[in-house]
Every structure is written in structure tokens, then in C-alpha cells.
């Protein structure tokens, strides 16, 4: 019985159905026609429903229904068939290939195409339109040709299989090449990563031979890996030390050795310290490597440089210890609270100030411990959260209930993501009491000074009248004739003493006035002021006096007071000169940062360095040994006036000799004069008076 499914599977496996016949098959069909001595022959293949004439000789081949095929009997039986006249054979007489519907076959011979597995794929058929008989030799020759056809089918199948295998091999080769390229790219990427990262990677094989150092490892160790170095020599060769940086690392403690023999190493710290290089403190993590079958492959260790991190940790710990020491030894109380105001830190100064130990204070609210209930009910912590308690004075209480006044600086900060508050508290109870006592004393002193100045002015005024009378009577007495030389000398002495006393009283009055008379500032033209004073001095003391000045600005000042300052300075400048020296004075002005600095430079006898501050003291007179007369009040009065204007006055040595007296006046509303500086030697245009 025919297994049709298996037969069709075999037919389709050969892949010749509906495929063009090649030259070899066409040649076989021609040989078949020649051997059978017929004009026509065909190679037929049968699928489920049709007969396919793959190649023909003597007629145009075509497909036809399987039910109409004469060779169906051969396919069904698998046995060759040949008849001399098909029209007389009951099997074929009614067939359309015999009746003339498709053809007029008479002589007919057909042999099966049988596979080695016994499946009939089709037939090799030779026929003639004339009746004729076929010999056994012809049928045997056709069977041989059928075998040749099957061989050609098999060769085609094998070629197709070979082509498919070749294609698969090509695809596999392409896949392998692509995989190799991917592996190469991955290897290059891995190498690039290994060479670019700052983590050192070291690898050994299953026998403990070093096989790889990446860039970081080579830099840290200073050399390349050497597979010939035994593990016992790793520490010495690659400068491996324990955490202390001094003790060479024992072999069982070397991270790569541990990873290879123990399977894993995590977080081990060691030091790599090559000679001539800064040591690197590293943390090592590694594990053993195994193949897919579980056999050992080697070990790998990654090392991260924590030198900076450890140094930062040490520095942070040192800072924390320093901060703790500072806070524990500080005289101010220091307190830290959580967001609810519960104390978490309480230093010894807080213990001493409030009487609560740190253990007793911990866990209790700061306001409960220290601050009495506020009348307005407002929480200090709430104010601090808004930035309103940077520095305030608040009443506080000690553990024993006694009150004190503290200066409080309370501010929020963030610690590990949580808002907290820190406070510095200073006991200012005694300081405030002392300040009140000082304010009272200052008030009393100011009142006493006012009374003293009024008394001075009154006494000076009361003394001036009799002195004026003494001077007048002495002058009248001196004008009377017939006086002895001794009487004339005595009267002259009386007049000089009275005049000196009058000058001192005038200076005292000017000094008192400079201290207490209200300032009424106006723009004072220094050019005009100096010119007027120069004229007065030359009139009273002689034309030999030379006073020059640069262009001088107008400054805001009390005109009378500023005139008194300049008069004193110019008077001293032309007075204190060596004998037979013509006085020369030059005045300059410089404006900087809202201040005007006036410098009066003379060619006088000068002032010793140690006396340059003393000369501004009241009644101080420097002894020059040359008999110069003075009251010691003028420069003190100048100092009072300048300071009341908000300026300063000081003395510098002249460029060559003499003295430079400098003072500052604010050009606008200033509260402090500029720093003192040396004499200004820049070239200026001179204006001679």
C-alpha cells in the first residue's frame, strides 16, 4: 500500500517539482526516446492532484490532472508498464491520452522513479502514436535511465543541501565574525575603561601569576606586573604596607592573594608606598574568577584611593575635637537644641552659669530650664527660626531661681537634614550694672567739667580786669620822669608779667570756648583765611616773614575756631625759629576719600620725636633752651577744635628740618579721619603772599 504522505514528502524534499529541468535531465529524456525508438518521451512527476511533465521530447509538455494520467498505474503499483497498443488495453483505452482528447498514444512504455526509500515520485515514459512493441532490453534500459534520473535528483538535493549548509556556514561565519568584532570592541571598551578610571585593577591567573595592571595600578605601584614574581615577594616588589604605612603586608593579608585563596575580600585597607612617590592609602575589594564549568580562572582586585578622604576625615575629626575643646573651655554658655527646643548639647560654661549639669539639662526644653515665661508668650525659638534673635539681651534664671541678664545669640542650623538651634549665652548682669555705674559717673564728670569750665571762664574774666589795671598803672608810672634804673627795670618786669598773665588768661578763655561753644559749620575759604593771617603776622612781627601756600579748598567748619587753629599754627611756625633765621612757612592741602588734610611746614627748630604727642597736652611747654615764651595752651586748644570737627591733628618732621603740623577736616559728613601718612613731597604750584 502506498504511503502517499511519505511519497509527497520525499517528492518535495528533492525540490524538483515546478523547477526548470536542467540540461542533464533533458539529455536523459532524449536518450530514453532513442533507446525506446519512439519519437516522444517525457519525465513525469506526480503531486497530490496533477501530473507535471518536467521535460519532454517530441511534444510540448504541460501539467494535466493526475486522474487523467496513463502513468498513474505505474505510480500506484511501482511496477514498469509497456503495451504495444494502448487503445486495446482496457486500462488505457478510455484515457484522454489515448482517445485523442489529449493525444493518440498507442505504443506505450513507462518505468517508475523509485527513491532508495521506495517512494515513487513519477515516471520516465516513452510512447508513440503508432502501435509497436517494446523489448525487455528497452524496458531494462529505461529502468537504468530512471535510476540515473534519481541520481540526478539526489545530486540536486545534495547540491541544495550543500548550498544551504554553505549559506548556513556563511551566516555562521558572518555571525562569528560579528561576534568577534563585538568581542574585540568590548575588549577595547573594557581596556579603555580600565585605562581611564581612577580605580586600580590588578588580576592574576589561577596559579597566582600576575597578569594585568591597569593604568592606575601601574601609576600607584610605579612598575608593570611581572608574572615571574612569586606571591611571597609581592609586598616587597610592589611596596605593599599595612594600614600604618610602615609594616610590610604579610602574604596571607595581600588582597589579591586573599581573593584567590579565600574567594572574596571586601573593604580591606592598605598603603602603597613606592620609593620617591607619595604613599597612597587604598581600600581593596576583590573576588576569585571561575570558568563556566566552575574551575578556577584567577582573581581580580579593585583598589580605590582614599588618601584624601582619610585625610579629610582626620581633619574633620581634629576640627571636631578642637571645636569640642573650644566649646568645653569657652566662658560663654553654649547650647544646642532639637527642633522642639529640647537640649542636646550643654557645655561646662552652661553648667556653671545656670547650675544644671549636662545630664540634667539633656532632654529638657531650653526655655523651661533658662528663660522665665515671657509676658507676650512669644517663643524664642520661633523668633530664631525667623532670624530675629541674632543677638539680644533677655532675662534668665538659674537653677536656684536667682535672676540674671544674658546676652543671647540664637540661630537655626541644619544637621543631617534636621533643623536645629544653637545658642551662645553670656552673663552680662555685672557688665550692665557696671555700664550703668559708668554712665552715671560720666554724667557726673561731664557736669563737673562743665562747672569747672564755667568757673575757669569766670575766674579768667575776673582776673583780667585787675591785670589790665596793673598794666595801665605800671605804664603810667613808667612814663613819670626821674626814675632810678632799678625802678625802671622793676616797672618793666611788672608790665611783662601782667602781659604774659593776660595772654595766658586769653588762651584759657579760648580753650574753654573751644570745648563748649556750639559748632555752626560754614564753608571757610582757606585761601582767604591764610592770606588774612599772613598780612596780620607780617604787620605785627615784621616783613621778613615768608608764608606760601598751594591752592587751598573751602572746608565746612566753625569759621572762628578754624581761624584760631590756623592762627596758632602759623604763629608757632614763625615764632619757633633759630636766631638769625628768617621764618618760612608753606601750607598744602590734599583731598582723599571725603577728607581734607592740611599740612603746615616750617623751617623752625623742630620738635623731638618723643615730644610730638606731649605738645598737645594742656600747659605742656617743651624746653628748647632758647628762652621762647608761651603758655602751653595753644596746641591743646587746636586739638580740641579739630577733634570737635571730627578730625585729627598730629606732627611730622619736616622734609629737611623744621616741623610739619597736619590736621584733617571732613569735606562732608564723616565720623573718622583718614590714616596718618608721611609728608607730601609732590610738586605743587606755590603762591607767595
From TrEMBL:
Pfam families in the cross-refs: GAF_2, HATPase_c, HisKA, PAS_4
Cited InterPro entries: BphY/WalK/GraS-like, GAF, GAF-like_dom_sf, HATPase_C_sf, HATPase_dom, His_kinase_dom, HisK_dim/P_dom, HisK_dim/P_sf
Cellular compartments annotated: Cell membrane
Catalytic activity of the protein: ATP + protein L-histidine = ADP + protein N-phospho-L-histidine
Keyword Disulfide bond: no
Main location: membrane
Coiled-coil regions, chain positions: 431-458
Domain PAC stretches: 390-440
Protein name stated in the entry: Sensor-like histidine kinase SenX3
